[in-house]
Design a protein that fits this description.
The protein is an alpha/beta fold and 292 residues long. The protein has one domain: Ribonuclease Z/Hydroxyacylglutathione hydrolase-like (Metallo-beta-lactamase, Chain A, 4-Layer Sandwich), CATH 3.60.15.10. 31% of the residues lie in helices and 21% in strands. The chain starts with a strand and ends in a 17-residue tail after the last helix. About 4% of the residues have low confidence.
Length: 292
């Protein structure tokens, strides 16, 4: 566990996502869960050893399987955005995997198949404030990378956990993203939260250049999709956007294939959802799109 403020920690040693923990006199707030049940039980023991965990709270920053599959093993009250709870209502009780490869971390762990979901116990719409004997902990809805994304903000310590709003050294997930809203959230991080310690849900502490890099990638995708839509291109045409994005990351061959699949799936689904649910538009001459 790495400390970034008084009683504020993050943990990046487990498969799945970067975790957070707020250790306060009246309890501990865990931010997201390890992917594998075995890791979740280990994480729970680590947290209990901190202060006994008399009040057990788990905050899910969104509904992605990578951060929610291990939630049941933490044996805690679960808080999330109401849209996360709605997504769980449409899922089977037991996780059976997905029919398509989305480039998520869980796809590399077959032991996640058959896990029983833990449904959120408490939800909110826009904002919630938690009091556990320490500074105020604010949960806020910040849609963009997904419709249900929330941030955990500790104003007194100038720390914010932002989930997949910013990811480090890997491509983002685009399947359910609202690109314009996402860019607004990145602007917010560079203005309102510019003097905060920002913790990514995939990578840990965020540098200013990490935000700018992600901003360039999302702008590139947005312009590229707009161009494809104006020319009535099929969703398969989003394949041409994949390689320019991949050149921004230096990863192992194993992760390279995972990232290719993440982008192929995400861009295809994002384009299909946004542009194929409306009537086609008149084509325009080709234009040059700068690489991210």
């Amino acid at each position: 566990m790495k400390q970034v403020g008084h009683g504020i920690y993050y943990e990046d040693s487990f498969s799945g996502v970067t975790l957070g923990a707020l250790v306060y006199p009246q309890g501990i707030i865990a931010i997201d869960a390890p992917l594998r049940a075995e890791d979740a039980r280990t994480w729970r023991s680590m947290l209990i050893n901190q202060r006994g965990w008399p009040n057990r709270l788990l905050v899910n920053l969104d509904a992605h399987p990578d951060r929610t599959l291990g939630a049941r093993a933490l044996e805690s009250t679960i808080l999330s955005h109401q849209k996360t709870a709605q997504i769980f209502q449409n899922r089977p009780t037991i996780f059976k995997g997905l029919s398509t490869e989305s480039g998520a971390t869980w796809e590399s762990h077959t032991d996640t198949i058959g896990v029983r979901w833990a449904i959120p116990d408490i939800t909110f719409s826009e904002r919630m404030i938690l009091h556990l004997g320490g500074p105020d902990v604010i949960l806020e809805h910040h849609p963009g990378c997904t419709p249900e994304t929330i941030w955990v903000i500790i104003p007194q310590d100038r720390v914010v956990f932002v989930g997949d709003t910013v990811v480090i050294d890997q491509p983002p997930f685009f399947a359910t993203a609202d690109l314009e809203a996402w860019l607004e959230q990145l602007d917010l991080l560079q203005t309102t939260f510019r003097d905060y310690v920002i913790i990514s849900g995939r990578g840990g502490p965020v540098e200013k250049e990490d935000i700018r890099s992600q901003q360039r990638i999302i702008e590139y995708v947005h312009k590229g999709m707009e161009r494809l839509a104006r020319n009535n291109s099929p969703p398969e045409a989003t394949e041409k956007l994949v390689q320019p994005i991949l050149t921004k990351f230096f990863v192992s061959e194993l992760h390279q294939q995972l990232h290719v699949q993440r982008l192929r799936y995400g861009l295809h689904q994002g384009y299909l959802r946004r542009y194929r649910s409306a009537p086609p538009v008149e084509p325009t001459p080709p234009e040059t799109i700068e690489q991210p």
